[in-house]
Amino acid sequence: MADIRALILNCTLKRSPARSSSEVLGREVLDALGEQGVTGELIRVVDHDVRFGVSTDEGHGDAWPQIRAKLMAAQILVIATPIWLGQPSSVCKMVLERLDAELSETDDQGRLLTYGKVAAVAVVGNEDGAHHTIGQVQQALNEVGFTCPAAGATYWVGEALHKTDYIDARPKPDTTGRATKALALNSAHLARLLAEQPYPPPDARDAAVDPAQRSG
After folding, report:
1. Cβ atoms within 10 Å, residue 10
2. From the CB of residue 20, how many other CB atoms can be counted at a distance below 10 Å?
3. Which residues does the annotated region (Disordered) include (predicted)?
4. Alpha-carbon span 135 to 143, nearest angstrom
5. CA-CA distance, 91 to 52, in Å (whole number)?
6. Helix (H) or strand (E) holding 123
7. How far is the CA of 187 from the CAs of 21, 38, 216, in angstroms?
8. Chain segment 60-70, per-residue pLDDT in tens
9. ∠ CA 195-145-118 to the nearest 5 degrees?
10. pTM of the predicted model, to two decimals?
């Protein structure tokens, strides 16, 4: 079985050591992945000087290249984000913007470097917006080359107008726990499949098409 490593990017707005519900859920995902034999780490993005931009390195002390190196060494990426105004956090959106640069990064066979990497999402917040946030983040990650597994998201939202955060929720809801375990199981499974059977390069896909069926 292929050795699989995960990177959890916590996109909270709060710098350490402030308490973070998205960090709690992110670490629960990391623990669940550990039960599937996956090792990894969690990074709170806002603790690092990540610059705005759409390149792999914005220079001037930009911390993204170091985070990106860990991402490239991992087979699973999990974005953990809170919901604000029904949207992913601004930190999450900044991370997605930085990942836009991966559309220009390819291997010697023309494949995006993110091909073969699995992406999942963990969301916390009050009231509504979890499905919308998951949809936004998964679509963006898939567009830049990541593969999203079945049941590749977990979330928790509190009741409308309540101020309880996931970090303080007692007892933790079984529904979120089951979703977290499914995310971990399917992400690890898919990552191992892709490690053993990588996506074909673009030339191979073109060659697989019958010339008689090609338009033009």
Report:
1. 29
2. 25
3. 195-216
4. 12
5. 10
6. strand 118-126
7. 22, 10, 40
8. 999 999 999 99
9. 45
10. 0.91
